[in-house]
Write a structure and sequence with these properties.
Layout: H1 2-12, E1 19-24, H2 28-43, E2 47-48, E3 57-62, H3 67-86, E4 91-96, H4 102-111, E5 117-119, H5 127-137, E6 141-143, E7 164-168, E8 170-171, H6 182-186, E9 190-191, H7 194-207, E10 211-215, H8 232-240, E11 247-251, H9 260-268, E12 275-277, H10 285-290, H11 297-310, E13 315-322, H12 329-342, E14 346-351, H13 369-392, E15 398-407, E16 410-415, E17 420-423, E18 434-442, E19 447-451
Parallel strand pairs: 1-2, 1-3, 3-4, 4-5, 5-6, 7-10, 10-11, 12-13, 13-14, 17-19
Antiparallel strand pairs: 8-9, 15-16, 15-18, 16-17, 18-19
Bound molecules: S-adenosyl-L-homocysteine, iron/sulfur cluster (SF4) and FE3-S4 cluster (F3S).
Residues 65-66, 179-180, 182, 217-218, 252, 254, 279, 281, 319, 321, 350, 352-353, 355 line the site of S-adenosyl-L-homocysteine.
């Protein structure tokens, strides 16, 4: 905070309020991190803009999960050469998961000279100090902390919305799925203490937030490193006991740790949204084993069965990877049959992307890109049919939804299960309120209906 004040004093001496642009890629964890980076920037006296030409400082918060995500970031950072040429005082910072990859940091240092400051997730809490160092010496700062250290609490936050909020409950991942970069760039699991989490949720409820999502790469492992006598289900229960009208969500859950106790806890409270994101990744036992997922197809299906037994109207969504190294056509068919057996409400589908340093990147991968793409398209087409049928089943029902915003097509709302509903009526004063909505239409992406 001392560094924030020093930078604030420098900024106060300028003839204008300096503006910062925060450009965020990747998952909700990165969104939540960007809210803390904005918190710091605000303390330093920056205002905000979405226009890189107007920005005095551009902060790119990156994602390393797939090649495509990295290419997009590098393309956009490359283009910042032009804005910086017009505005040589512009400061360009690159942070997030890509910055924690040594080969990326090296490439940026050598080939992207417009980048002044680079730091990974481990050093996020030190952003003001690093920025001060750059401003004081005028030399590029590359921070390669490879130890996440303990969790820094008390970082200021500027949230993006007033209805929905993210609360990180833990950082890192211990699972080392063989395809995944996250454990390498985010470090081992570290849980925030229950009292700080519950205090943050109580504060959000008091401020009027209505949709609060607890975040972690594997929330079901929360607390294992704390020795606090609570597990994730206990934390969720304690959060649901906080007074106020709000819904609690959480993500992501690894199937190996999704427990009966958690399902029963969800069933016991109306404040815990009836939705569950439970990535399955592959339908074949051999592929799941090669992925180091530690559960098999039957075990996964059993979890889904028990989840539905506890919460009959639960909305289940999932992630799947197509074309993991060595996946055969027969094994891919097992993914196709699994999605039919489960009937997910929505599915996030990814083509396997090799990540430097992960075990899967050195496995043999004989299937061609074209064949993987053909599998991918079949999977998406089948899931679209399933999603549309699931959505059509809502027509004629009246569903309690949270009206959460507005876009060019009108008001938007979310069901408890987080399905998007487009409203055909209603005024803006509904935003931030729960409303009963009669569903009148549906397609594969969303529902439509009228507030009654
Ligand atoms: N912690 C979460 C997932 C985070 S990453 C979990 O375990 O469920 C989000 C999704 O990206 C993963 O579920 C996986 O489906 C996908 N993914 C991760 N690494 C990938 C890779 N190398 N190639 C393609 N998809 C990948
Ligand atoms: Fe990656 Fe697996 Fe950890 Fe999820 S659980 S972040 S897929 S290593
Ligand atoms: Fe991407 Fe990092 Fe999230 S790699 S998916 S931003 S944890």
């Amino acid at each position: 905070m001392d560094y924030c004040q020093k930078i604030h004093a420098m900024n106060a001496a300028l003839d204008h309020t300096p503006l910062a642009m925060v450009d965020t890629y990747g998952c909700q964890q990165n969104e939540a991190d960007s809210e803390r980076l904005r918190g710091y920037l605000s303390q330093m006296g920056y205002g905000f803009t979405d226009d890189e030409h107007q920005a005095d400082l551009v902060l790119v918060n990156t994602c390393a999960i797939r090649e495509h995500a990295e290419q997009r970031v590098l393309g956009n950072v490359g283009a910042l050469v032009h804005t910086k040429r017009k505005n040589p005082n512009q400061i360009i910072c690159l942070c997030g998961c890509m910055a924690q990859e040594p080969h990326v940091a090296k490439k940026v240092k050598e080939s992207y000279h417009q980048v002044d400051l680079l730091f990974g997730p481990h050093a996020l809490w030190r952003f003001p100090e690093l920025l001060w160092r750059f401003k004081a010496a005028g030399k590029r700062v590359f921070e390669f902390a490879d130890d996440p250290g303990s969790i820094a609490e008390g970082i200021p936050v500027v949230r993006q919305g007033s209805v929905k909020a993210w609360v990180s409950i833990m950082y890192g991942c211990n699972n080392f799925c063989s395809y995944c970069i996250v454990p390498y760039v985010r470090g081992r699991e570290r849980s925030r203490k229950p009292e700080v989490i519950l205090e943050e949720i109580a504060g959000l409820a008091a401020e009027g937030y209505k949709d609060i999502t607890l975040l972690g790469q594997n929330v079901n492992s929360w607390g294992k490193d704390l020795d606090c006598g609570m597990d994730f289900a206990d934390l969720l229960k304690a959060a649901a006991d906080i007074p106020g009208e709000f819904l609690l969500r959480f993500m992501t859950s690894h199937p190996k740790d999704a427990s009966q106790k958690l399902f029963d806890t969800m069933a016991s409270s109306e404040k815990i949204a009836p939705c569950f994101h439970l990535p399955f990744q592959a339908g074949s036992d051999r592929v799941l084993k090669a992925m180091n997922r530690v559960y098999g197809r039957a075990g996964y299906l059993d979890k889904v069965r028990r989840l539905r037994a506890a919460i009959p109207d639960v909305v289940i969504t999932s992630d799947v990877i197509v074309g993991f190294p060595g996946e055969t056509a027969e094994e891919f068919e097992e993914t196709m049959t699994l999605i039919d057996e489960v009937g997910f409400d929505a599915l996030f589908t990814f083509i396997y992307s090799p990540r430097v340093g992960t075990p899967a990147a050195s496995m043999e991968d004989p299937v061609s890109r074209e064949e993987k793409l053909a599998w991918f398209q079949r999977l998406v087409a089948r899931q679209d049919e399933i999603s549309e049928a699931k959505h059509r089943a809502y027509i004629g029902k009246t569903v309690r939804c949270l009206v959460d915003g507005k876009d060019e097509k009108g008001l938007t709302a979310r069901t408890g299960g987080n399905r998007l509903v487009r409203l055909t009526n209603g005024a803006e004063d509904l935003i931030g309120r729960f409303a009963d909505i009669r569903i009148t239409g549906a397609n594969k992406w969303s529902l439509s209906g009228e507030a009654v």
